[in-house]
Write a structure and sequence with these properties.
InterPro entries: ATPase_Atu1862_pred, HerA-like, HerA_central, P-loop_NTPase. This is ATP-binding protein. Keywords: ATP-binding, Nucleotide-binding. The chain has 483 residues and is of the alpha/beta class. It has three domains: 248 residues, P-loop containing nucleotide triphosphate hydrolases (Rossmann fold, 3-Layer(aba) Sandwich), CATH 3.40.50; 68 residues, no CATH class; 83 residues, Winged helix-like DNA-binding domain superfamily/Winged helix DNA-binding domain (Arc Repressor Mutant, subunit A), CATH 1.10.10. Helix content is 41%, strand content 15%. The protein has 18 helices and 15 strands. Strands 2-1-11-10-9-3-8-7-4-6-5 form an eleven-stranded mixed beta sheet. The chain starts with a strand and ends with a strand.
């Protein structure tokens, strides 16, 4: 289905359509100085394509939240949520094909980059069955994909840049079409800008930005002066989705508006200068001077009585000691809650250990019942559906798996559980979830690695069904479809 989005008119007054289906395949870069009309252009694109495609907006200033009332976008205020919650919202948005606006207003630059990276990575890592087409609009993209280091921590900068690179370089196969807008091309990472095939260049004045814009539009350097002369709301367009030759476009009107518009001149107050001076220079309430400190001296008999008195019990009595069975039950419940809250967005064991410690203390365990290595092994078992403390046979399975990296332990235990219970062999999708990936290729390589360590043997029968045997334990799964 071909959908043409009316973006405005050319110098002859003819409507300039933008092929939405072609845009999804080729991405878009918008550039222009502050006040050139970039946000107006993005709003026109979003309004005219609403209802035809899912839209995701990364909004650093909260300008696009007004789309919610007119077009039904769901606004996510990032300042009210944690990174993990924001990532979960992104996963749900892909699953339910909901148009959302991630408002980063109120966050510092580092917080905005962290939140945007978590959100974009969750969009990118969605399961294959949720790879529906979506426009991902990132305003002020130079904040999230800077060309060089800035004031933020290097680790945060790299994470944000990696998420933006994935969106522009690899997002197409996952249905994600990046639409990025920037004030200056020189501040935007080149490997992010270079992946766009459509360009809308607005007014800019710096020579370096005009030169890069002219190169992208296929114009000669002497023609770059035309970019400096563009009026507000006018853009030079080029790309397979809009025009095969540079074309001047005047962006059409929009239905919604940003919460913060351009400053307008208003009349100054007409009060006499003397009155204004009195208002500004009115006496400020003086702070009351601090008096000398008051010292309370207890009489000698009260001091002697306090010394002779028996010690008072502590305000917080010690927590009761738990039996081994009670402790194991609490640990199992806490692990089950951790895995359920974690969902498909698996986190490192060292990060989850902090959460585990807090939850255990909240239910009355005075000290962590497991150290980090033991917790890592129990977490892998829990991700495989084994919550209780390992019995003798499970302990033997864990001992055999000692040669495996920690991230493979959960997948191994999932297969071991199916083999011990005589159930069908887990599918590659189930193993992928336990392994913390959406790539079936990684699952195949991981299974080959474990089999190369002689810990299991994979067998595919003539019907194409796979079963896995664990020779050291004498357990075998039932045959099931390999994929």
């Amino acid at each position: 289905m071909t959908v043409n989005v009316d973006m405005g008119t050319d110098p002859a007054g003819k409507t300039v359509p933008l092929d939405l289906e072609e845009l999804l395949a080729t991405r878009l870069l918008v550039q222009g100085n502050s006040g050139s009309g970039k946000s107006h252009l993005l709003r026109r694109l979003l309004e005219r394509s609403a209802g035809h495609v899912q839209q995701v907006v990364i909004d650093p200033e909260g300008d696009f939240v007004t789309l919610a009332g007119a077009y039904g976008h769901v606004v996510i205020e990032a300042a009210d949520h944690s990174e993990r919650e924001v990532a979960k919202f992104a996963t749900r948005a892909r699953e339910h094909r909901a148009s959302v606006v991630l408002s980063l207003e109120g966050l510092e630059a580092e917080g905005q980059m962290k939140c945007a990276a978590a959100f974009l990575n969750a969009l990118f890592d969605a399961p294959r069955e949720h790879w529906y087409p979506a426009l991902v609009v990132v305003d002020e993209a130079q904040l999230f994909a800077p060309a060089g280091g800035g004031e933020v921590v290097e680790e945060v900068r790299r994470a944000s840049l990696s998420a933006m690179t994935n969106l522009m370089c690899r997002g197409r196969k996952r249905g994600l079409a990046g639409v990025i807008a920037t004030q200056r091309l020189a501040k935007l990472a080149k490997n992010v800008a270079a992946e766009a095939s459509n360009f809308l260049m607005g007014r800019t004045f710096l020579d370096i930005d005009m030169a890069r814009a002219a190169d992208l539009l296929g114009m000669e350097r002497r023609q770059a002066e035309a970019i400096r002369d563009l009026q507000r709301g006018h853009f030079l367009a080029l790309g397979p989705a809009v025009s095969r030759r540079p074309l001047s476009i005047k962006i059409g009107p929009v239905q919604t508006s940003a919460r913060s518009g351009s400053p307008k001149l208003t009349p100054l107050p007409t009060a006499p200068v003397a009155d204004i001076k009195n208002l500004l220079l009115a006496p400020v309430e003086a702070m009351l001077p601090l008096g000398p400190p008051i010292r309370h001296v207890a009489p000698p008999e009260a001091v002697e009585a306090a010394i002779a008195a028996p010690p008072r019990p502590s305000v917080a009595p010690d927590l009761p000691e738990r039996s081994a069975d009670e402790t194991d039950g609490i640990v199992a419940d806490v692990l089950r809650a951790l895995v359920e809250d974690e969902g498909d967005q698996q986190r490192a064991a060292a990060v989850l250990y902090q959460d585990f410690d807090v939850r255990c203390r909240m239910v009355g365990l005075p000290r962590p019942p497991l150290d980090l290595p033991a917790f890592t092994r129990r977490l892998a078992c829990a991700r495989a559906g084994i919550y209780d403390a390992p019995d003798e046979e499970w302990a033997q399975a864990l001992a055999i798996a000692d040669v495996l990296p920690d991230d493979m332990l959960g997948a191994f235990m999932l297969i071991a559980r199916a083999a011990r219970e005589g159930r069908p062999c887990p599918s590659e999708a189930e193993i992928a979830r336990t392994y913390g990936t959406s790539s079936l290729g990684r699952v195949k390589r991981m299974l080959a690695y474990i089999e190369g360590r002689d810990l299991m043997v994979c067998r595919i029968d003539l019907a194409g069904k796979r079963s896995i045997a664990l020779p050291h334990l004498g357990w075998t799964t039932e045959a099931a479809e390999a994929a």
